[in-house]
Amino acid sequence: QDTINQIAAGEVIERPASVVKELLENAIDAGSTAVTIETKEGGLSLVRVTDNGCGIPAGEIPLAFLRHSTSKIRSAADLMTVSSLGFRGEALSSIAAVCQVELITKPQEALTGACYSIEGGQEKSLKEVGAPDGTTFLVRNLFYNTPARRKFLKAPATEGGYIADLAEKMALSHPEVSIRLIQNGSNKLFTTGNGSLKDLIYMIYGRDISANTLEVQADSPLMQVSGYIGKPVIARGNRAYENYFINGRYIRSRLISKAIEDAYKPFMMLHKYPFTVLHLTIEPELLDVNVHPTKMELRFKQEDQIYKALYQALSDALSGKEFIPEVS
Ligand code: ADP
Ligand code: MG
Fold it and tell me: What's the 69 CA to ligand 2 centre distance in angstroms?
């Protein structure tokens, strides 16, 4: 059983940044408005995530750490319409299988909080404690019980860099949530959670980029597109600045990248890639996010229409056409 859990864990948890990603997604799903991430040694020795979300009732804590246990979907049919970031119920069990985990949590309506600890999938204790509303996860010594896997991790500075990149993407994907990242005691990122994507772009990418963006805002029956795209003058040699989020989820998709790059073609030199921060809102029925455990890839139904709608939205913005809301 331990081995099975450790193998399953490997699909979800590859490195410290995966731990941070899963815990941040859970914090956001819990309705948090502020989340603090603290790491030591690039997350290898410690990842701490504190949120002010709904908390976990003491009686449900052990259940939350069981494999395939999720409070977010109830049936296979729900899978087709998931709007939460998590739904596979694999993160906590995977993290607990390969780390030493301590959880302190308290729902607002509970009188006291609970402190739970679990290491390598073995429950250690569950105690009543005083705690603020919300949830804190302390995750220590990633892969302490699977040394072979620990060897594949990079130096703390590199792993810490992956965490910083991830925190930026999560901040861009949820401008309404205040995100703070502290690495080895120093502040690396703080977002206000004021909801302004433009403020976030300024803060993360700086003035030169922020001042050279165009706003995109377009509605089609299948999809809503909003965000900012770079003028062709700030094109880059790679796709690192091509950000897009679908229903609040940071993903990679050939279809979406192609629609973006095709729209830029008339304005751009060969082998250059645009800066984009785009939020796409698509009916969950048209998506299949259950393709891969890390939920980074997804499939679309009606690919053609999604491609066309995005292509059109960007072409219009790039050619200076005003967005005129349809009168219905
Ligand atoms: P999933 O997110 O796919 O449901 P997880 O293993 O990530 O699965 O989490 C299991 C369950 O634990 C969640 O469904 C949720 O009920 C609970 N949970 C995890 N993290 C938090 C949190 N920060 N706040 C409140 N509940 C949480
Ligand atoms: Mg989750």
Answer: 10
The answer as to whether 197 is a domain residue is: no
The answer to whether residues 72 and 170 belong to one domain is: yes
> Which ligand is the nearest neighbour of the Cα of 108?
1
Q: Are residues 93 and 133 in the same domain?
A: yes
Ligand 1 atom 7: the closest Cα is on which residue?
Answer: 91
Residue nearest to atom 19 of ligand 1 (CA): 26
Check pocket membership of 88 for ligand 1, CB cut-off 6 A: yes
Q: How confident is the model over 319-326, as a mean pLDDT?
A: 64
pLDDT the model gives residue 298? 79
**Cα dihedral: 242, 166, 41, 146 (round 10):** -110
CA distances from 302 to 103, 190, 247, 278, 311 (A): 42, 38, 17, 20, 14
Last residue of a domain, one of 146, 166, 190: 190
Q: How far is ligand 2, taken at its centre, from the CA of residue 23, in Å? A: 7
150 CA to middle of ligand 1, Å?
25
* pLDDT tens, residue by residue, 243-270: 999 999 888 899 999 999 999 999 998 8
Nearest to 16 by CA among 137, 153, 169, 186: 153
Model confidence at 327: pLDDT above 60: no
Q: State pTM to two decimals.
A: 0.91
Do 166 and 87 share a structural domain?
yes
Residues 90 and 167 placed together within one structural domain of the fold: yes
- For residue 289, the number of C-alpha atoms closer than 13 Å in the C-beta half-sphere is 25
